[in-house]
């Protein structure tokens, strides 16, 4: 299991191009050139974005068996799970707060 920092995931996904890369990879693995073309950025710019996503462990890369120069990028499940767990905690907190507020209002109305 990969140790994923939710703060780091949010940090790297603050950039719209990197969010677009994550969305593109959500449909399936792609090569860097395909990602650059689909995102409308230059190959060097895409390379920088991919390095950042790789360092944050949001994506992984694999070499193509027939051509070691070609890398295919894919999403890693761990960052999504970590962010979802964090969101679940936030939602549980707000559900608890809203429940307490509802109970308070109902008690005041019945008084």
Describe this protein's structure:
66% of the residues lie in helices and 15% in strands. With 111 residues, it is α+β, with helices and mostly antiparallel strands. It has one domain (6-110): Orthogonal Bundle (Arc Repressor Mutant, subunit A), CATH 1.10.10.10. The chain has a three-stranded antiparallel sheet with strand order 1-3-2. A hairpin with a 2-residue loop joins strand 2 and strand 3. The radius of gyration is 20 Å and the shape is elongated.
Hey, roughly how much beta strand do the residues contain? 15-25%
Main sheet: strands, sense, barrel = 3 strands, antiparallel
Mean pLDDT: 89
SS-based structural class? alpha+beta
- As a whole number of angstroms, the C-alpha radius of gyration is 20 Å
Q: Cα distance, first to last residue?
A: 54 Å
Q: How do the helices and strands follow one another from N- to C-terminus? A: HHEHHEEH
Helical region count? 5
Please give the CATH class: Mainly Alpha
Poorly predicted ranges: none
- Helix residue percentage: 55-70%
Q: In CATH, what is the homologous superfamily? A: Winged helix-like DNA-binding domain superfamily/Winged helix DNA-binding domain
How many strand segments? 3
Strand order of the largest sheet: 1-3-2
In the CATH classification, which architecture applies? Orthogonal Bundle
Features:
111 residues, alpha+beta, Arc Repressor Mutant, subunit A, 3-stranded antiparallel β-sheet, 5 helices, transcription, transcription regulation, ArsR-like_HTH
